[in-house]
Design goal:
The chain is an alpha/beta fold. 47% of the residues lie in helices and 19% in strands. Among the domains are: 95 residues, Nucleic acid-binding proteins (OB fold (Dihydrolipoamide Acetyltransferase, E2P)), CATH 2.40.50.140; 125 residues, Hypothetical protein af1403, domain 2 (Rossmann fold), CATH 3.40.50.10550; 41 residues, no CATH class. The strands form three sheets. A five-stranded mixed beta barrel has the order 1-2-3-5-4. Helix 4 runs parallel beside helix 8.
Length: 448
């Protein structure tokens, strides 16, 4: 007997069915007509995709729906990139829409992708190839259609932000057959003429078919070859073309392109306004300060006659104060002199009572001096007599002489002489030369 089959819930069945569908059917493109369109308050969009024989429920969540550059409406033929799934709570088969494009545009998107890949590989999108925009362009060139609303938007923005800038229009069709070639020729013409410093390539928004001229390779090559810096302002913010990638700068809209072209002038104008305001405030503060200084000086400004009168009064006051000061000083010196004289008088010695004693002392001093003088004269005479006895000249006068050898040495011992020796004799008066005939040595002399 076979085992009974397992029983599962509806929730489990729907979950398994969803997982099976999502696993078996990866993201794919589905073509159909939109019907039963409903926009929820949450921003999600619900509709059906149908053909002649069948239809399928679809949901496009808000984050995906907001990326569509055109409004989704019933009856539109579209191609949807969808995930096949199942809504589990109701068991409804549905497609989760990832993106939408209008039917028949797949070929254009593929051509766009191929050209983008090829030009990017050549380095035409590289940032280092892009040129900086001039801060203060003297003239701006515009590549656009004279009847385009985008041109009016650009001119309005330029007039508002830099009305002094001249504008040169290089007219060309921007849509339809031959538009791409016309745009490329206009870009080349602007480069040859060198009439402007900056080139704006502009067109208003539209479908990918409307903007296709700016996805042509001839336009991309012309932008790259242009000797002038370029700004691409094609379509709306969500539109992107090949021209945006190769241009030196991409602007979200034509108006934004005009704002980029004049940002230096606009910023300078704002700075001038700020500097003018700052200068005005500084001048006002300076004038106020000078006025206050003038007010202070005016308070000090006095008529010469008044100043002379005030000076005369001050001189009189100073004269009075000087006289009073001199009188006070004179009185002070007089009083000080009187006090000094009184003190001096008190310190003068009283010599009357000492005069007799001083006379007696003077007499005694005089007698002592005479006595001392007499004593010293007597001592001097004794010393002179003693010196007279010791005088060699006196000894020579008594018959003595001094004997010297040939070298002038004084000889006092006969033992120092030898017979025949020449000697000189020094007498009291004069000298004589002699020779030793004989010598008799005496006993040694004892000095006590």
């Amino acid at each position: 007997m076979s085992e009974p089959m397992a029983v599962i819930s509806i929730s489990e069945l729907n979950r398994l069915a969803r997982q099976s569908l999502e696993r078996e059917f990866p993201l794919l493109w589905v073509a159909g007509e939109i019907s039963n369109l409903m926009r929820a308050a949450s921003g999600h969009v619900y509709f059906s995709l149908k053909d002649e024989d069948a239809q399928a429920r679809c949901v496009m969540f808000r984050s995906r729906a907001q990326s569509i550059p055109w409004r989704i409406e019933n009856g539109q033929q579209v191609e949807a990139r969808a995930l096949v799934s199942l809504y589990e709570p109701r068991g409804d088969f549905q497609l989760n829409i990832d993106s939408l494009r209008q039917a028949g545009l797949g070929r254009l998107f593929e051509a766009f992708a191929r050209l983008k890949t090829r030009l990017e590989a050549e380095g035409l999108f590289a940032a280092e190839r892009k040129r900086p925009l001039p801060d203060f362009p003297r003239r701006i060139g515009i590549i656009s259609s004279p009847r385009a609303a985008a041109l009016q938007d650009i001119l309005a923005a330029l007039t508002r932000r830099a009305p002094q800038l001249p504008v040169i229009l290089y007219p060309t069709p921007v849509q339809g057959d031959g538009a791409a070639q016309g745009i490329a020729e206009a870009i080349a013409k602007a480069g040859r003429r060198q009439e402007c410093d900056l080139l704006l390539i502009a067109r208003g928004g539209g479908s990918i078919e409307d903007l296709w001229a700016f996805n042509e390779e001839v336009v991309a090559r012309a932008i790259v070859a242009s000797p002038l810096p370029t700004i691409s302002g094609v379509g709306h913010e969500t539109d992107t073309t090949i021209a945006d990638y190769v241009a030196d700068m991409r602007a979200a809209t034509p108006t934004a392109a005009a704002e980029l072209a004049t940002q230096g002038w606009h910023r300078a104008a704002g700075e001038i306004v700020e500097l003018s305001s700052a200068l005005g405030r500084t001048m006002e503060q300076r004038i106020t300060s000078l006025q206050q200084g003038l007010d202070h000086l005016s308070l000090r400004l006095v008529h010469p006659a008044t100043r002379m009168a005030r000076a005369g009064d001050r001189i009189s006051l100073l004269d009075t104060r000087l006289n009073a000061s001199l009188a006070s000083m004179l009185r002070w010196h007089r009083e000080r002199l009187a006090r000094t004289a009184l003190a001096f008088d008190r310190r003068v010695p009283r010599t009357e009572k000492h005069r007799g004693r001083v006379g007696l002392l003077a007499q005694r001093l005089d007698a002592a001096l005479r006595k001392q003088q007499l004593q010293r004269f007597n001592a001097l005479d004794l010393l002179a007599a003693s010196l007279s006895h010791l005088n060699p000249e006196a000894t020579l006068a008594r018959g003595f002489s001094i004997i010297r050898d040939a070298d002038g040495h004084v000889l006092s011992d006969a033992a120092d002489l030898h017979v025949g020796q020449a000697v000189s004799l020094h007498l009291a008066r004069g000298s004589a030369e002699a020779s030793i005939l004989a010598r008799t040595p005496g006993p040694p002399m004892v000095v006590i």
